[in-house]
Design a protein that fits this description.
The protein is mainly α and about 220 residues long. It has one domain (about 5-215). About 80% of the residues lie in helices and about 0% in strands. The protein contains eight helices and no strands. The protein has helices at about 5-30, 35-45, 50-75, 80-100, 120-140, 140-160, 165-175, 180-215. The longest helix is centred in the C-terminal third of the chain and has 38 residues, at about 180-215. The mean pLDDT is about 90.
């Protein structure tokens, strides 16, 4: 059984290192051209795709799917909701790797904070999921419920919420400056933090259930 506290420390170090290196790459890039930047910025920047931060984000979400699957296999109740959570994490992991959500955009003529119009169907989908999962969330143990709500709020706040100021900035200043990079860095860092907290929450929940099963008469 994985120790949730050790897992939390390990993920904190990984996310902090990835985020710090990404910010360093952006700030260095903003100071002026350098030959080494051509290699490091695409590799480390959280604004780029198919690089180290993307690998970490996709891996964390895949770990969330596996952790939710372990809970689902042992669950005595709400199994369909647990398996649904597996599907959500797995889709998010795939989306992180190949950017499926980009296909949701470009269909509505929007501007300002809704410059990236894919957030509109995304919010609608999240609303449906919230309604479907509300009874399930209420039925969770208090500690698990709190952990997952905090993790979800941080992740969605980054993935969807930060797209609003990012879109506003992109429309006015374009996607190539330091301002855009910093906003995007905040967004991606929140996603990494939220995904990490979700993995820890699921592992802790599985550990709690196992401990209760062992202590039962």
């Amino acid at each position: 059984m994985i120790d949730p506290r050790a897992l939390r420390r390990g993920l904190f170090v990984a996310v902090a290192a990835c985020s710090a290196l990404g910010l360093f790459a952006e700030l260095w890039h903003a100071r002026g051209p350098h030959p080494l930047q051509e290699q490091l910025v695409p590799l480390l920047s959280l604004s780029y795709e198919h690089n180290v931060p993307t690998w970490l984000a996709s891996s964390l979400l895949l770990a969330g799917a596996l952790a939710a699957g372990a809970v689902a296999r042992a669950a005595a109740a709400w199994r369909r909701h647990w398996w649904g959570m597996v599907a959500v994490f797995a889709y998010a992991s795939l989306d992180e790797a190949v950017e499926l959500h980009e296909h949701l955009g470009g269909h509505i003529d929007t501007s300002g904070v809704l410059y990236f119009d894919w957030v509109i169907p995304a919010v609608a989908i999240l609303g449906v999921l919230a309604a479907v999962y509300l009874p399930f969330v209420r039925a969770l143990p208090a500690a698990t419920r709190r952990r997952l709500i905090v993790a979800g709020a941080i992740y969605i706040g980054g993935a969807v919420g930060m797209e609003l100021p990012l879109g506003w900035w992109a429309e006015r200043a374009g996607p190539d400056g330091l301002g855009y990079a910093v906003i995007d860095w905040v967004e991606e860092t929140l996603e990494l933090c939220g995904a990490s907290l979700a993995v820890v929450a699921l592992v802790a929940h599985r550990a709690d259930r196992a401990d209760q099963a062992e202590s039962a008469p």
